[in-house]
Write a structure and sequence with these properties.
InterPro entries: Dim1 (IPR004123), Thioredoxin-like_sf (IPR036249). The chain contains four helices and five strands; from the N terminus they run E-H-E-H-E-H-E-E-H. The chain is α/β, with parallel strands linked by helices. The longest helix has 14 residues. The radius of gyration is 14 Å and the shape is globular. 22% of the residues are buried.
């Protein structure tokens, strides 16, 4: 189900189009499941902030239960739910959130 305020992408071509057509903005894709509590919590936060970031970011939800989306789950090696992937001008933005060993 996802958020009523954010678009939910269920087909590969929808994800492809979102990545390709979002120019000069960051595209935030939340990969998850509508029935997962953590996803619902993140969806609420993303929906509440989507208007505030709308000048520089677009947010969409990606339904991980869709068969067509499995290609992205495999490509990005998504193992945790929810997972948030960022793109800018059709390029995946790799982010290192760091860990305790990288700080020592």
């Amino acid at each position: 189900m996802g958020s009523a305020l954010l678009p939910t992408l269920r087909q590969k071509r929808e994800v492809d189009a979102a990545i390709r057509d979002t120019l000069d903005k960051v595209l935030v894709l939340r990969f998850g499941r509508a029935d997962a509590a953590a996803c619902l919590h993140l969806d609420d936060i993303l929906a509440k902030t989507s208007w505030d970031v709308s000048k520089f970011a677009s947010v969409a939800l990606v339904d991980m239960d869709s068969e067509e989306i499995q290609v992205y789950i495999d490509y990005f090696d998504i193992t945790l739910v929810p997972a948030t992937i960022f793109f800018f001008n059709a390029h995946h933005m790799k982010m290192d959130s760091g860990n305790i060993t990288s700080l020592l």
